[in-house]
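Colleagues,

For the teaching module next term, I've prepared a clean inverse folding example: a structure given as tokens, and then the sequence designed for it. I'd like students to try predicting residues themselves before seeing the answer, so please don't circulate the second half yet.
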């Protein structure tokens, strides 16, 4: 009997590890304190809480989350749930439908996620959205799509979050 491949994140990580090999690096806090090591930053996602294998709790006893992945330094940066919250998005490679938008917009950050409200400023090279309420789990490389009502007015690739 032929075995069907098992798909999902664990199998994708295993496949990536086979293709790239182990690439050890540090797991650090946002202030640079080394907490542990990883075998490949490719195995982590922003917002991840489980599977960090740090071996010790945070001083306040609360869970740690992946805040960002620094591929240049090969580091996974972790911190509190509060540190995951962002209010500013900067996107590159903007696409505008009509004139460059200015003012209030709704922003879609995930295909099936709830839109969040914000204020957009736009230039030829970049767009910035200041959110009216913090959101979490947004990472560089994700797509940002801005709406006025049901009309798409802009999109871009998220380069930075704060």
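(Answer key — instructors only)
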């Amino acid at each position: 009997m032929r075995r069907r491949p098992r798909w999902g994140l664990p199998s994708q990580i295993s496949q990536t590890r086979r293709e790239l090999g182990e690439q050890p690096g540090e797991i650090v806090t946002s202030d640079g304190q080394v907490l542990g090591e990883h075998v490949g930053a490719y195995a982590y996602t922003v917002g991840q809480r489980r599977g960090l294998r740090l071996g010790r709790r945070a001083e306040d006893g609360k869970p740690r989350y992946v805040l960002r992945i620094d591929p240049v330094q090969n580091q996974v940066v972790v911190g509190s749930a509060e540190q995951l919250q962002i209010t500013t998005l900067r996107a590159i490679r903007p696409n505008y439908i009509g004139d460059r938008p200015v003012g209030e917009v709704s922003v879609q950050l995930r295909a099936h996620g709830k839109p969040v409200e914000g204020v957009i400023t736009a230039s030829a090279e970049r767009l910035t959205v200041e959110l009216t309420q913090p959101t979490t789990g947004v990472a560089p490389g994700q797509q940002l799509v801005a709406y006025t009502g049901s009309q798409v007015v802009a999109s871009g690739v998220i380069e930075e979050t704060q």
